[in-house]
Amino acid sequence: MSREGDEIGRVPLPDIGAVIVRGYGATLSLNLAARLAELNVPLVLCGTDQSPASIVWPISGHHAQGHIIEAQAALTRPRTKRLWQVLVKAKIAAQAQALEAVGEPAADLKSMIPKVLSGDVDNLEAQAARRYWPRMLGAAEEGFTRKRERDGVNAALNYGYAVLRAGAARSILSAGLHPSLSLHHISRGDPLRLADDIMEPFRPWVDVIVRGLAEAKPTNQPVTLSRDDKAALVDVLTIDLEGPFGASPVQTCLNRLCQSLADVCLKERETLELPGPPIFGTGLLGRAG
Question: Considering the entire predicted model, what is its pTM?
Answer without folding.
Answer: 0.82
